[in-house]
TrEMBL record:
InterPro entries: DegT/StrS_aminotransferase, PyrdxlP-dep_Trfase, PyrdxlP-dep_Trfase_major, PyrdxlP-dep_Trfase_small. Belongs to the DegT/DnrJ/EryC1 family. It holds the Pfam family DegT_DnrJ_EryC1. GO terms for molecular function: pyridoxal phosphate binding; transaminase activity. The modification N6-(pyridoxal phosphate)lysine is found at K186. Transmembrane segments: none annotated. It comes from the Bacteria. This is Putative pyridoxal phosphate-dependent enzyme. The active site is at K186. The keyword NAD does not apply. It comes from Ignavibacterium album (strain DSM 19864 / JCM 16511 / NBRC 101810 / Mat9-16). Keywords: Pyridoxal phosphate. The keyword Ribosomal protein does not apply.
Length: 379
């Protein structure tokens, strides 16, 4: 049996006519950049996330940059970022000339550990980026308390958390500004590069609109510095169609997670993801940890063997992320070393992302679970 990591073709086939029509409309209107398709999508996306404003962008990375740029981050400033995230979270800081300061993740949520944030704060700290990684919301209340007490900005990276909830509230409206990615493989994916930034702050929303379009509010009149971070019309059209199915697809992902738990919940060679009591997890990724022994290095070897074994059985898996940010070559000058963030390293060395997409069948899920059990019987 073949089990892909995700299946964008199956999803496209299920909405083909609607998507094709929406794209055709953009082609007919020649509204290739921004335009009505983007405007309508922004409105609907903001509504779906209970947030006042959504500004469509060219990528989630651009959203990470815009959030900190608009909040005035500059060279010499420091930004607190989880060590366990995709590198684009850190680009938000570096593109402002600011320095990323990494913090380890919580061993259960896999998100930034709020108890470790204060120790990373210095007089230069200007912002904290909460990433809702793998689709699980970060623990926002303690982060909000720290940000208030220390007068530090708090923003969200929601690239993996469309429709996820923290204490009943959607991610994307839980801080000053929240970036989203619509990279094709995301829970809500475009057919190219796309992203957005959301906020409840009217002034900030206005500023985002200017910054994404060369610092202008009227064509050729540039009040501030800016950039070209506009969303394309075709992406707005595709996203507008797909947004209507997002909650259905999200429930599909949650159902896949439930089934994995039914099959693997009592299997002690691996640790399954925990849905925190405050969270509605949207399972962008389903990351298990291989832990037959207490030795991370040994488990890492087992993880790699398991990955190869599953590959041979036709099951595609992923690593998120094999090299934690503090050990990336590009951040060598920051002076971190192996051992600095043990929980993040544990995920990098022993984590394995199983196939996760709403169209996975019960047979495929069972086959993945059985193959994992079979591997440990043989090894
Ligand atoms: C956590 C996180 N932040 C930021 C990004 C960047 O998004 P994009 O690829 O749309 O630039 C991604 C996705 O790739 C991500 O997973």
């Amino acid at each position: 049996m073949q089990v892909p990591f995700l299946d964008l073709k199956a999803q496209y086939n299920s909405i083909k006519n609607e998507v094709n029509e929406a794209i055709q409309e953009v082609l007919d209107n020649t509204a290739y950049i921004l335009g009505n398709s983007v405007k309508n999508f922004e409105k609907e996306f903001a509504r779906a996330h209970d947030v006042k404003h959504c500004v469509g962008l060219s990528s989630g990375t651009d959203g990470n940059h815009l959030a900190l740029w608009a909040l005035g981050l500059k060279p010499g400033d420091e930004v607190i970022i989880p060590a366990n995230t995709f590198i684009a979270t850190a680009w938000g800081a570096t593109l402002c000339g600011a320095k990323p300061v990494f913090v380890d993740c919580d061993p259960e949520s896999y998100n930034i550990d709020p108890n470790k944030v204060e120790a990373a704060i210095t007089s230069r700290t200007k912002a904290i980026v909460a990433v809702h990684l793998y689709g699980q919301p970060a623990d926002m209340d303690p982060l909000r308390e720290i940000s208030k007490a220390k007068n530090i900005h708090l923003v969200e990276d929601c690239a993996q958390s469309h429709l996820a909830e923290y204490k009943g509230k959607k991610t994307g409206g839980l801080s000053e500004a929240a970036s989203f990615s619509f990279y094709p493989g995301k829970n809500l994916g475009a057919y190219g590069e796309a992203g957005a930034i959301c906020t409840n702050d009217d002034e900030l929303a206005d500023y985002f609109l200017k910054l994404r379009e060369h610092g202008q509010s009227k064509k050729y009149y540039h009040q501030t510095y800016g950039h070209n971070y506009r969303m394309e019309g075709i992406q707005g059209a595709v996203l507008g169609v797909k947004l209507k199915y997002l909650s259905h697809w999200t429930e599909g992902r949650r159902n896949v997670a439930k089934k994995y738990r039914e099959h693997l919940g009592n299997f002690d060679k691996i640790k399954l993801p925990t849905e925190m009591s405050y969270a509605k997890h949207v399972y962008h990724l389903y990351v298990i940890q291989v832990q037959p022994t207490l030795d991370v290095k040994k488990n890492s070897e087992v993880r790699d063997k398991l990955k190869d074994y599953l590959q041979e059985k036709g099951i595609a898996t992923g690593l998120h992320y094999p090299v934690p940010l503090h050990l990336q070559e590009c951040f060598r000058d920051l002076g971190y070393k192996e051992g600095d963030f043990p929980e993040t390293e544990k995920l990098a060395f022993t984590g394995l992302s199983l196939p996760m997409f709403p169209e996975l069948t019960d047979e495929q899920i069972k086959y993945v679970a059985d193959s994992i059990k079979e591997f440990f019987l043989k090894n």
